[in-house]
Design a protein that fits this description.
The relative contact order is 0.12. Helix 4 crosses helix 7. This protein has 2 domains: 32 residues; 121 residues, Dna Topoisomerase Vi A Subunit, Chain: A, domain 2, CATH 3.40.1360.10. The chain is an alpha/beta fold. The strands form 2 sheets. The chain has a 5-stranded mixed β-sheet with strand order 4-3-5-6-7. A two-stranded antiparallel sheet has the order 1-2. The radius of gyration is 19 Å and the shape is globular. The protein binds zinc ion. The site of zinc ion has 8 residues, from helix 3.
Length: 186
């Protein structure tokens, strides 16, 4: 339990004691749902968002605008942008950002697959919605360079978003506005 993110030793102990007190049936339901989670939840073949089907709900929805793709660091960012209700395009989850300090390079992220998607002709705009940190800026630039030959327009969130902020901690109004007021990447 204490190996889980954000759970210290005291909280871990409290959780274990709580689980031990639960009825057998309750406990079995809990453990089997954890096993199901690991077995049945996959990553979408297209956008790498979490999904229980091969292609996620967003990628397979006929209501979404297939000409726009928003590039985010992780799945929490997809949720944050969905919560704004201001975006109707598709996503591309990188699975991190470039961070030489942590040994994460472009090849460790879903950048090649983004370039491949951008080449298919359907995509007209790629919105960069990465953190406004040095790592985020580096990643933006690498993606921009990769996408240049495809002729796809590259935009970024309006910089009303506070420097260094993770999308999941920005309030919905601000995030929604920064999507609507996005600017051409330069
Ligand atoms: Zn998807």
């Amino acid at each position: 339990m204490s190996a889980l993110p954000g759970i210290g030793r005291r909280t871990a102990l409290r959780l274990v004691l709580h689980l031990l007190k639960r009825q057998e049936a309750d406990f079995e339901r809990f453990t089997s749902s954890l096993i199901t989670l690991k077995k049945e939840v996959h990553y979408c073949r297209e956008c790498h968002n979490i999904s229980d089907t091969e292609v996620c709900n967003i990628c397979s929805s006929p209501k979404r605008d297939r000409s726009t793709v928003c590039v985010v660091e992780n799945i929490q960012d997809v949720m944050a942008i969905e919560n704004t209700g201001q975006y109707n395009g598709l996503y591309h989850v990188l699975g991190g950002i470039i961070s030489p300090m942590d040994g994460i390079g472009p090849q460790d992220l879903e950048i090649d697959s983004l370039a491949t998607r951008a080449q298919n002709g359907e995509i007209k705009e790629v919105i960069l919605a990465l953190p406004t940190t040095a790592e985020g800026d580096t990643t933006n630039f690498v993606i921009y360079k990769r996408l240049q030959p495809t002729g796809v327009q590259v935009t970024q969130l309006a910089r009303g978003v506070a420097v260094g902020s993770d999308l999941e901690y920005i309030d919905e109004m601000t995030l929604g506005k920064s999507i609507l007021n996005r600017t051409v990447f330069q």
